[in-house]
Amino acid sequence: MSTIEVAGLRRTFRVRRATVTAVDGIDFTVEAGEMVGYIGPNGAGKSTTIKMLTGILVPTSGRIRVAGLEPARRRTELARRIGVVFGNRSLLWWDLPLRQSFDLLRHLYRVPAPEHRRRLAELADVLELGPLFDRPVRQLSLGQRMRGELTAALLHAPELLFLDEPTVGLDIVSRARVREFLLRLNRERGVTVLLTTHDLADIERLCPRMLIIDHGRVLYDGGTAEIAARFGGTRTLVVDLAESRPPLQLTGASVVRTDGPRQWIRFRPADATAAQLVAAVSEQAPLVDLAIEEPDIEEVVRRIYTGELTEAG
Amino acid sequence: MRAYWELAVSGYRRYATYRGATLAGAFTNSVFGLMRGYVLLAIVAGRPRVGGYDAADTLTYVWLVQGLLMVAYLWGWNDLALRIISGDVVVDLGRPVDLQGAWLAADLGRAAYHTIFRGLPPVMLAELLFRLDLPTDPLLWLAFAVSVALAAVVSFSARFLVNLCAFWLLDYRGILSMSSLIGTFLSGSVVPLPFLPGGVRAVVEVLPFSAMLQLPIDVLLGKHRGLDLAGALLFQLTWALALLGLGRLVLAAGVRRLVVQGG
Amino acid sequence: MADPLAALETYAHLAAASIRSRAQYRLSFALDFVGTFVSALTDFVAILVLFSHLPVLGGWTLPEVSLLYGVAGISFALTDMLVGHLDGFGELIRTGTFDVLLVRPHGSLFQVVASELAIRRLGKLSQAAAVLLYAVANAPVAWSAPKVALLLLTLGTGTAIYAGIWVAGAAIAFWTTEIREVANAFTYGGSYLASYPINLFGVWLRRFLAFVVPAAFVAYYPCVVILGKPDPVAGLPWLGLLAPVVALATLAAGRLVWQLGVRHYRSTGS
Q1: So what CATH class is A233-294?
Q2: How far apart are CA C177 and CA C243, in angstroms?
Q3: Quick check: C136 contacting A, CB < 8 Å?
Q4: What is the ipTM of this complex?
Q5: Chain B residues with beta carbon closer than 8 angstroms to that of C200
Q6: Residue ranges making up the domain that contains C254
Q7: How confident is the model at residue A311 (pLDDT cuts 50, 70, 90)?
Q8: Within chain B, where are the H helices?
Q9: Is the CB of C27 less than 8 angstroms away from the CB of B195?
Q10: Per-residue pLDDT tens digits for A240-259
Q11: What is the pTM of this model?
């Protein structure tokens, strides 16, 4: 039995007499112990899918099984076996010390005291919660709070963890810590992880497999490595020339798009540095302004649409 | 002057967006009017007058209370306190309009909206169902309009004053709810002040709360005539000015504290 | 809830947490306590004012009306303590925090109810209890064991009836947060009406209070039984004995409305 089975999943909403299809026929399977990235632009249907998988939202049609259970029908049963971390909603009690939040969760999930102590000690050790235990949640920084949320979601030892935009707003150090932790969790405990995020870098570091979703459909379901090979390490130099020119000819880089005097130049740091490129460009044409773009999910989706990548198999 | 008009209009508009809530409020007011009517009428049943009120007066009083409840606005206004706590009041102080005047203008706009859309429907409903004892004398209606406007100012100035406690107390909610409680009873919204025993009534009628609700209702019921009417309106005006003045003093003290403390 | 004892334990922990949370704001707590006491007091003063003009209100003397008031008041205060905070749960929906409750292994109503126990409402409770004591001492009742038991039972059924009404009213927030205030007409309105003998009210209102929003079963009908008074309304002086049935029905109805609300929420998203 697969941990997650989704077939023909659809979800429509009625918004002021119009019908909006947020999820439009999604199929995928996730096996136990996998770590999968679920990625897409804003409004692609990621959160809606997660809500259906966790039992919050009832699907309009289609088949959905999580840990062998139908989420909409057996919500409370499923709740014991999953953990969920929301990026913008807290699992913790705002006014109370962190320690008390964990204690309340122990009672909510009916975890026996010795088991709870042991697990909390482990998680506190790995996530370095020690000094935070007696601080009210409202006094914690976002990074500290996120570590608290992860602990809260895992105290009852779920077999499946859903993470909905967990690294939003975190600084680089906190983000790295969270990624480290998730890798260990998956490798050492075999917890299945489904991670939705807007951040490609999260996926590249954590998930061997990714699903790209846009407009409610799966665009790509396959290895992260392939995508990384195409995009990995490519950057885009955006230059504003003094006047419109035909696409510049540059070694180690190619112009992928022009719009009047603006040109988008894609390159790999291995082939040319940004500084070299800027110099090469200004030799050919007067330069007014420039910026550097890192690859993001919108870019990936756009390139899928323009046929540079194959669709989901 | 123009600025204050604009503020009043924006105060009106702000509440006009809450159509559903206003409708719900009008419904709730109507239900309470109905209930209170039954209870209070039991008092006057079978006797000519109580405290100068006959049955028709009592019934009309009950519904006018519901109609003017949002002018007296006894419960739940903490906008100023919130702005003081958050520190946003500093922004207000920096503006070229007088802070108290600005808030007054906005509140009058709000009172206008609430009176028309939340206060009027229950009264019209009651007039249809029960035939209230409303006067036909246009001068009396004019006096009533003036009295209601003054009541709105008295109500605002009292709320303004109480909200200022947020300059000193982080935990202002307790003071606010306490003053609301006191105001609710002493304004005559629970029991008409004329029903209170003689000595108590005399004391209560001197307090500003009676100016917020009981007084305009008594004006419309024709309880104040001639010089007495002028006296009643003057009573409202006096309290309005006194509370506004006190509010300015306390505001100045609060601002001083803010500056000294650094917010 | 498969295991009621375990549920009670979970409730106790969550409710205790809410009390600890509130205890941090000491001044507000103290003033709330005093405030609810004073508020209840003004309600009763209104009744005293009524009786300063009348010896009898609708055939009921002051001690008898005090019995009504005391029973209704205690029941309402208990309900307010247990589920009063449901008035504000629309905020959970608006912010999406309600979803957090749906990923936990408990019913949503249980979790929302358990999220707070408002012991500051004890202010109202003590005021109503004081009035009840006065009533018990002065009402023309021969207090036997069955009558005392009935009185205590009435406090329980009264609380249950109010709770059912309150939950149903709060559940409106699942469909619309704007007109939720309409529910106040029924919860606070019901509380006001239950403190008076219902023969004061018009026929349609009496029927409404008996059969639709059964506030008449919180205090009036049971007190008719306790006081051994005739029932001028329908000539059924034993109707108060049905209060437990009405209580269970009202609780069930309230829970049903809530469940419909949750179903709506889960089917339409927000």
Answers
A1: alpha beta
A2: 32
A3: no
A4: 0.85
A5: 38-39, 42
A6: 4-268
A7: very low
A8: 2-16, 19-44, 55-72, 79-86, 89-93, 99-114, 120-130, 138-163, 173-186, 198-204, 209-212, 214-220, 227-261
A9: no
A10: 998 888 888 888 888 888 88
A11: 0.85
